[in-house]
Amino acid sequence: MQTKHDGERRGASITSSEIIASNRKGLRVGLQKPIQDALEKLKEEGFIDTEIDSEDMGDHLVIFDLLKFKGEDAKEDPFSKRVTYLEKLGEEIKSKKLDNALKIDFPTIADSLEQAKAFVESAKSNNEEGVVLKNGDATYNEGRPSSGGNALKLKFVESATLRVTSISEGKRSVSIEINDNGNWISVGKCTIPANQDVPNPGELIEVDYLYAIKDGALFQPIYKGKRNDLDETAAIISQLKYKKD
Questions:
Q1: What is the pairing mode between strands 218-219 and 222-226?
Q2: Residue 167: alpha-carbon gap to chain centroid
Q3: What whole-number distance in Å separates Cα of residue 80 and Cα of residue 78?
Q4: What distances in angstroms separate CA 152 from CA 3, 88, 117, 181, one per listed residue?
Q5: For residues 145 and 46, what is the distance between their CA atoms, to the nearest angstrom?
Q6: What's the pTM?
Q7: Which residues contact 178 (CB under 8 A, 6 or more apart)?
Q8: pLDDT, tens digit (0-9, with 9 covering 90-100), for 179-203
Q9: DSSP β-bridge partners for residue 184
Q10: 20, pLDDT greater than 90
């Protein structure tokens, strides 16, 4: 299993003639220059015909799986074997001092349920956004991991009570705010599902979210419902969990 970073997931191909990055919709897109330069350096040093599964974090790429390694197709190999390719790639990256732009997310091996639980709790205490649990015997599967099967994605979702500021005109979304020592500050907007009534300004609502951004909005807010059982003293900023630096 391994930790899973949020960000846009992309597969990058390092071939003898080009470097391509495509997002999960299959569109060809460009990576930022530090990442492109690092991939070019690997290619110039003979590290070619390799396909990686990764996430673009802006100024660096996090690599967590390999589909092809120096011409050898790895999709049908178990994850435990693909990890050995990750280790070899990590050695190449480190030796060429490219680890500022290319980072390997090495998995943590768990041999028991207790070890898996300890890993999850450690990730939570380190304020990680979530983890992905993988079957070490599983072959590569494209797309995001769903519940069950050979991969299980766990997001550490938080919840907060907030106050509605206004309703977006012509849309099923509301602006939301929270009390910061007597000052009500905006924490972005939240979409209201079609099967729920749109709450009115001044009402309290419960929202699930992945993390909060300092002086910014909640990331991936999900409306859970009205909180008619609470008063405004519940909508305090101390509830929020912030993004790990």
A1: unpaired
A2: 29
A3: 5
A4: 11, 26, 13, 39
A5: 32
A6: 0.61
A7: 160, 162, 163, 184, 185, 187, 235, 236, 237, 239, 240
A8: 999 999 999 999 999 999 999 999 9
A9: 179
A10: no
Task: Determine the pLDDT at residue 171.
Answer: 92
DSSP codes, the chain: -EE---SEEEEEEE-SS-EEEEETT--EEPPPHHHHHHHHHHHHTT--SEEEEEEE-SSSEEEEEEEEETTEE-TTS-HHHHHHHHHHHHHHHHHTT-TTTEEE-PPPP-SSHHHHHHHHHHHHHTT-SEEEEE-TTPPP--S---SSTTEEEEE--EEEEEEEEEEPTTSSEEEEEEEETTEEEEEEEEEPPTTSPPPPTT-EEEEEESEE-TTSPEES-EEEEE-TT--GGG-BGGG--BPP-
| The three-state (H, E, C) secondary structure of 10-57, written as one string | EEEEECCCCEEEEECCCCEECCCHHHHHHHHHHHHCCCCCEEEEEEEC
Of 46, 58, 31, nearest to 88 by C-alpha is: 46
What gap in Å lies between CA 103 and CA 97, rounded to an integer?
11
Write down the mean pLDDT value for the chain: 82
Task: Return the residue matching tokens 């050979």.
Answer: 150
- The answer to whether the beta carbons of residues 162 and 150 sit under 8 Å apart is no
Q: Which two tokens stand for residue 69?
A: 């390694």
Q: Please state, in angstroms and rounded to a whole number, the distance separating the CA atoms of residues 121 and 125.
A: 6
User: How far is residue 152's CA from residue 170's CA, in Å, rounded to a whole number?
Assistant: 37
Residue that is written with structure tokens 């008619």 in the block: 228
